[in-house]
Structures are given as C-alpha cells and as structure tokens.
Specification:
11 strands, globular, 321 residues, alpha/beta, 10 helices, 15% strand
Length: 321
C-alpha cells in the first residue's frame, strides 16, 4: 500500500469527519507515569505530537523503531516529556474500534516506560496545529506528521511556515508557523521511510528552539524538493547516482550473468538484478550516509554530495564483482 491509499482514505472520510467532529467528544486514552511527579512550572517539558498514528502499522513502527531515537535526542535538556498521538480517521466505520483502542493502550503504556516520559495520549480529535506554536512560545515541541497533512512553504531563511491541506481538498489553510517533520507513510512498512524516520530529523538547542531537517535543507540548498514528499530528496539523490553507475558499468559487465550466481539463488542472473540485491543488503547504511551528507554540520555543494554518494555505492558494488 502506498501513500495513495492514505489519500483514498481521506477522500472517503473527510466529509464524515467534519460531520462527526463535534459529536465524538472525550475520544482519547491516556497513560501517566506514576513514578514521576505531576508537571509544574519548574519542570522543563518537551512535547511530541503525532498525526496519522492509527494508519496501518504506524503505531507499531513508532513503538519499535522511531520513539527511542527521538527521546535520546531530547533527553539532555528536559526532565519530562509529554506525547500526544492523534488520528482523525480512527474509529470511522471501524468495527474493531475497541480492539484497536486496547492495542493502542499497550503502545502508550510502552511510551511511559521510557525515561522522563510523563504521559502519553491517543486521541482521534483534531489537533489545533495553528495554535501550537503560540501555545508553546515557539519552542520545546515537535510534530511528527505521519498523515502528511502539513505542507512546507519555502522561504530563506526558513521560518517553519506551513499550511494544512487534506488530500480531499482543493484548498488549504492560511499559512502559520509550526515545528513539524514528515518522514513518509511509515505505516506501510516501507524501509526507506522507516530509515528516514530513524535519522536525526530535528535538533533542540539549549533555549528549546527546534531546527528541523526541512529547515536545514531549505537554508543550505534552497527549494530542492521535487514535490510535497519532502523525505524523498535523499532517495532521489541515490537514484540519480545509481542510474549513472549502472549506465557506466552495465556495458563493462554485460557478461556478468555468465560468470556469477545470484548470491541467494542457485541461478544465473543479469547485471541489474545482482546490483539491486547487492544494494538492498546495505541500503539502510547508505540512506543514513546520504542523510548526514545533506543535514550534517558540514556543508557540501550538491555536486560534492552526488560525488560522495556515487563513491559510496561504487565501493559496495565493487565488493561483489
């Protein structure tokens, strides 16, 4: 299932959501860490918000792959963390709604077992995104937009300007400021999106100011995104280098199928299939390498980045020839 499937869900449920929005009420479950004292004015608290968490396996993947990396990134500066998960599509036409809530209770219970997490909540009421920045005085929070309803407005320097646009709508909200990141439709189990979700998608300085990877890319390289799927910029860079390498090396090794076997099958294979399988083995390491080239402390030109990616995958490729 692709992001188009999520688009179809929005097309199907948008009208129902707006009809039911004011009727649901009290639609949340919450877990609180009783070993921590209640939040007071002296606490330094960081807030994590999510969207689209109920889509397919998103909650499970959050629990297994994503959450711990985020927490490790912010533990130093804060003594408490509050998590608020949301998905406005949850429960609409779902016959197994109660079973899902029980399962999600396990996930939010798992959240509060982590260091300094004071509470974790799941709701299918809409978050008031346009008010979050003012609510938190512009700092100490991040939104993980798994639902891909937030769009980023290019400016340089980037000031975290966004707008909300549901797939089913031809219009969008007025612009506003929001600390937000998008890493793909992770609920489909796509390893690229999961890999990007595990990277350092934002930094928090000592004053609580959040710098997202999207701001870093806008400020360093301008508007390099091909479309609204901002997380694909790293995959696009790899794809460009792969095409270059394959076009250069395929003629040289066109007879490869006659002298090597597929590493996992007792059959002869052609060059392209061998290359694809070779790269798959190390793809997560390569994605991390590319992310750090773009978003790390050093600034490279786009040509330098392409050269480094090409050199990296060339080394992998040479190792199997």
């Amino acid at each position: 299932m692709t992001s188009i499937s999520y688009k179809n869900k929005y097309l199907k449920y948008k009208s129902k959501y707006f009809d039911l929005k004011n009727q649901i009420g009290g639609s949340s479950i919450e877990a609180i860490n009783s070993s921590l004292t209640p939040i007071n004015d002296s606490d330094n608290v960081f807030y994590i918000y999510t969207t689209g968490i109920a889509y397919n396996d998103t909650f499970k993947i959050w629990n297994e792959y994503i959450r711990d990396n985020i927490i490790d990134n912010i533990l130093i500066n804060y003594n408490k963390i509050v998590i608020k998960h949301s998905d406005i599509l949850f429960g609409l036409d779902d016959a197994d709604k109660q079973d899902k809530l029980l399962r999600y209770q396990k996930y939010i219970d798992a959240d509060i077992k982590k260091p300094k997490i004071y509470s974790s909540l799941f709701t299918y009421m809409s978050l008031e995104f346009d008010k979050l920045h003012a609510k938190h005085n512009g700092k100490d929070y991040i939104v993980f937009d798994f639902a891909h309803v937030i769009r980023y407005i290019y400016k340089q320097p980037y000031d975290n300007s966004v707008y909300i646009k549901l797939y089913s709508s031809s219009t969008h909200s007025p612009p506003f400021i929001l600390n937000s990141v998008y890493s793909g439709v992770v609920g489909d189990g796509d390893m690229y999106d999961i890999s990007i979700s595990k990277q350092l998608l934002f930094n928090v300085n000592a004053d609580g100011i959040v710098t997202t990877y999207i701001k870093t890319l806008f400020d360093k390289y301008g508007n390099i995104f091909k479309d609204e799927n901002v997380q694909l910029v790293f995959k696009d860079a790899l794809d460009d280098c792969q095409k270059k390498l394959i076009n250069e090396w395929r003629p040289k090794y066109s007879s490869l199928a006659t002298k090597t076997k597929h590493p996992y099958k007792d059959t002869m294979v052609d060059f392209d299939e061998l290359y694809k399988d070779m790269l798959t083995d190390d793809i997560l390491d390569i994605y991390k390498f590319i992310f750090n080239l773009y978003c790390g402390k050093d600034k490279y030109t786009l040509q330098q980045i392409n050269d480094k990616i090409y050199g990296k995958i060339k080394l992998y490729f040479c190792s199997v020839l």
